Amino acid sequence: MKLFDMIKRFRSDESGAVTVDWVVLTAAIVGLGIAVLSQVKTGVDALAVDIKTSLTSAEVKQLGSLGWGNGTE
Description:
About 70% of the residues lie in helices and about 0% in strands.
């Protein structure tokens, strides 16, 4: 009879339920974050390539060629 009483108490004990809830919630948030990152990664990579291309092909102009520093201000 003692074994059955222990099993009944074990089944009705909810002391670890909050911990399990937090673990499940945290796992869901992490999973959602990974899903979002995998979707956003392609766009961010393309944007980074566009920025790199723009910066690589840019040239620095001298102030005189822009109308500054040659007495025309």
